[in-house]
Amino acid sequence: MPRPSPDQTQDAPYARILQNCLTGELRLVNVGLPRTRKTLSHLLREDYPQVICNDGSTHFFKRNELEYLASILDNDEQEALLLPILIEIGVSQGEAVILALSGLEGKLEMKVASKVLDMPVTCDQGKIRIYKSQLALLRRKLKTATVYVFSSAAPI
Amino acid sequence: MPQLIRVRPTKIELIKLKRRLALAQRVRKIVKDRLSILTMELLQTARDTTEAKKKLIDELSQLYKALSIAAGYHGYMVLEKELIATEAHLKVTVGSRNVAGVRIPSFELTNAQERLKAYSLADTSSWFDHAAQLSQACLNSIVELAELQRSFELLAMEISRTKRIANALEYVVIPGLQTTISYLNMKFEERDREEKARLKRVKVLVARG
Fold first, then answer.
1. Per CATH, is B11-199 categorized as 3.40.50.970?
2. Residue A124: enclosing H or E segment and its boundaries?
3. Do A89 and B33 touch (CB under 8 A)?
4. Which candidate from B25, B34, B40 shows the least CB-CB separation from A136?
5. ipTM score here?
6. A13 touching chain B per CB within 8 A
7. Alpha carbon distance A49, A59 (integer Å)
8. Given its phi and psi angles, is residue A94 left (phi above 0), alpha (psi -120 to 50 degrees) or beta?
9. What is the pTM of this model?
C-alpha cells in the first residue's frame, strides 16, 4: 500500500471544497420544490398561474395543462387538488412514487394518474407507485403540473 | 490506482473519512438518479422538438400557399394594406419551471388572436381569413419550438455537467476515500501488532528479571 506523498499536502483544502460541492449538489436537486402549493381552482383563477419555490424563484404552470386537469376533475375535486403534484425519485430502482398529499386518501392523484396513464393505479399509504416508463408518459402530459423530489433518505 | 488523501493517521480522521465516504455515496446515488431523469427529459424534449419542427414546417408551407392565393385574389397592394392593420408587438408570457434542479423557460403566446383579426372583414375574402388562421397557428408553433429548443440546450448542458460530477465521484472521489480508509485501517492494525510485539518483549524482559 503506497504512503501519501509529501506533494499531496494541498489535499485538505481540496477535500473541504469537495465536501462543499457535494453538500451543494444535495441542496441543488430540491431547490425547485414549491414553498407552498396551490389548489387547481385557485390556479385557474390566476392570470399568471405560478407558485414560489424554495429558492425564491417561481414555478410557472401552463394554462392548457390546468384546463386538462380541470376537465378530469369535478368542482369539489378542483378545490382539493394541490399543485404541483410531487413525484419522488430514488426510493427504488426503476420506480417512481407519486406523493398523494391532497387529502381524500390520495383519491385525486389516483384519478389524475389513472386517467393520464389510462390504467388503474393504487395508492398505498399516500404513495402511488409507477414505473419509469409510465413516468415519462405522465411527464409528457403534465410537464408543469408535476415536479420531482429527490429522496436522500433512501438506503445507500 | 486511486490517490491517497493526505491525512493524519488518527481515529478521528478515520471517522471523518468514513462520514465523507457515506456523504459521497449518497450524493453519487442522487446524482445518478438525477442523471437518469435529465436524460429521460432530454429524450422526451428531443422527440417533442422534432415533432414541433415538422408541424411548423407543414404549417408554414400551408401558410405560404394560403398567402399566395390571397395575394392572387386581392393583389399585393390590398394585402399589404390589410397586413399593416395586423402589425403589433406580440405578448409572450415568460415563466420558468424547475426540472431536477434545471430552470427551464416556459413561453406562452397570449394576445396574438385579437391582433390578427384587426383587418377589415368587409374588404377581405375568406382566403385572407384562412391565411390569418394559419399564421396564428404558426406563431403558436414558433413559440412552442423556441421553448423546446431552449429546454433541450439547457438540459444537454446540465447533463454534461452532471455526468462530469458522477464520473468524478465514481472514479476519483469514492475510490480515493476507500483507499485512504483502508490505508488507515491497515496502519492501525500494524500499530496494534507492533504494540502486542512490544508488550510480549517487555513481558519476556520482566520474566528474565
1. no
2. strand A123-124
3. yes
4. B40
5. 0.79
6. no
7. 9
8. left
9. 0.80
